Amino acid sequence: MLFRSVSLSKGQKIDLSKTNPNLSNILIGLGWSVNNYGANFDLDASAFLLGANGKVLSDSDFVFYNNLEHQSGSVKSMGDNRTGGSGTDDEQIKVDLSKVPADVKKIAFTVTINDAEQLGQNFGAVSRAFVRVVNEANNKELVRYDLNEKFSNETAVIFAELFRTPGGWNFSAAGEGLRGGLEALCRKYGVNI
Description:
Blueprint (H helix, E strand, L loop, with lengths): L5 E3 L4 E3 H4 L5 E10 L8 E8 L11 E2 L11 E3 L13 E6 L9 E8 L2 H4 L6 E10 L4 E8 L8 E10 L2 E11 L2 H9 L4
Parallel strand pairs: 1-10
Antiparallel strand pairs: 2-12, 3-7, 3-9, 4-5, 4-8, 6-7, 8-11, 9-10, 11-12
């Protein structure tokens, strides 16, 4: 049987645990291209581990380029790619679902433009953005969401969310843009800045 990745549209969800009963270690791949505007764009992927109220339980629940691994070992950023546009994953975040603390109900995966306000940059110059989930056990892509939304003044985008259900984990295609970059995301999710 030929395995095919599920392609989602904005707002759609998929039950990862139901379709992959033994799923434990996943890779979240995020990618994008930047239209040529003469200036270098540095996009950064981050993960916010959230409680039932949609906020972090502590500031250490924010995994990003200055905090590459959650203290539980459940979420790990594979580092910052300062160029992007490779056609494959520009940045990756690994998640061990078996290690996610029980009080974490959702993990939001976001991308921001570093120093966007100072450089006058926004997601209007970003195209072909995507997020995908790969089962690390067999390296198969399970689900992919191509962000076809047209962003203009946004400097931060929530690409996707993993959320806990009684039966396991679901993946949701978010595609929500915000102004204010990383600071706006930190305020939204309750990180002290």
